Amino acid sequence: MSRVQPITENGAVETTTPYTPRKIIESKSKVLNFLTSIKFTLTLIIFLVILSCTIVFDSIWMSVFAGEVSKLSENVRKSEFNLIISNTERSIKKVVLASELAKSQLYSGFDFSNETQSMSHTFRMHKAIKSHLNDLHMLLVGDSNGNMYGIELEETSVMFTIVNQEKDQSYWNCTDPDKNDECIHGDFPERVEPYSDYTFIPQIASNNQGRTLFSPPFIDSHSNQLSIACTSILAIPPSSKTINFVTML
Ligand SMILES: *[C@@H]1O[C@H](CO)[C@@H](O)[C@H](O)[C@H]1NC(C)=O
Ligand SMILES: *[C@@H]1O[C@H](CO)[C@@H](O)[C@H](O)[C@H]1NC(C)=O
Description:
Strand content: 15-25%
Shape: rod-shaped
Helix content: 40-55%
Bound molecules: 2-acetamido-2-deoxy-beta-D-glucopyranose
């Protein structure tokens, strides 16, 4: 059964229990009074005006700065991109120039099948070129059969290499390459590896006589690196059927 409780004049429930929340009711009505008072209304209006002003100003500044910041970052991006392009362009020009200069050294009486001659020529060429080309990995001269002689730069060594078409590829360690003008090497090659397929280079050469061009990128099976060959092909007299070339990887 529920107890019926008397109701007082102002509508509050009067109870006799010791935990009557009279004080809470009093403070609630105080809060209500304050909420409806002019003082509070004015404070609220001023607060809202300040808040809205702050939001408006902030959004103006934000939009101004956001524009500036995005313009700035776009400019930075653009200039970095241009730098990459101009560096790449410069590297490509250097490789082409080096290939054509190397080719120009091979015109008069160069015998592409003479191992001794090819060794000393490619060694001196690589010495002249390597300080201007950071990415030079290999410099080769070759004939239409795809036999090639050249210099391969390894981590700490300069190796003379002979690509014997469809047979093998041998490497000779050139001792003290900085001090010598010739590749001074031992009697036997440092190592002989299975032949890696460079046949696309003489193929490029036979189809593009007299030109300098880049191969499509390929994975070099020895270094396992992505490489691009720049091949400069000697102009061939009409009577001759041989195609000789110098190529850089
Ligand atoms: C190869 O070239 C060297 C030096 O240029 C020369 O002395 C030699 O006779 C040539 N060998 C052949 C087989 O022509
Ligand atoms: C080549 O010889 C040099 C010493 O002249 C040596 O330091 C280097 O390790 C050798 N490189 C190879 C691949 O054998």
